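Running co-folding for iron/sulfur cluster.
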Amino acid sequence: MGLLSLARVRSPWLLHFDCGSCNGCDIEILACLTPVYDVERFGIVNMGNPKHADLLVVTGPANRRSARVLENLYEQMPRPKIVVAVGACACSGGVFHACPNVLGGVDKVVPVDIYVPGCAARPEAIIDGIVLGLGRLNGNGKRDGAAAPGQS
Ligand code: SF4
């Protein structure tokens, strides 16, 4: 692993996008940033600019209104980049899957590396998913296939 990749893995910058969630999973992500769960101990910084982000953390289902925005954010992120789908809605559409404007999980729009299930996803599971994603920032953007916390 080169110096750039090492720095990226040791201090990843994270972009959070709410694709249309009920806000339940977003609150759990915010909990990860509080001193109780303290994701900064992994060097993770919450970042508002996709051009500086290594990790895209998405909540809520892909839908017709937000799909283009999600795709746009993903395209602006430098490679290698990791996408973490947080919550049942982001993984598969969840409770919104039958809605007419819902396309399904966010993998209908962007490639997802890590799926974190749950409604809402627990902070421990979100942190597990992000740390699993960091293991995939291998410096060349190569994808080894999608995974979920608890899987190797
Ligand atoms: S998975 Fe549950 S808590 Fe999370 S956005 Fe969907 S409905 Fe809300």
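Result summary
The domain at 3-134 is CATH 3.40.50.12280 (Rossmann fold).
The first strand starts at residue 13 and ends at 18.
Job closed.
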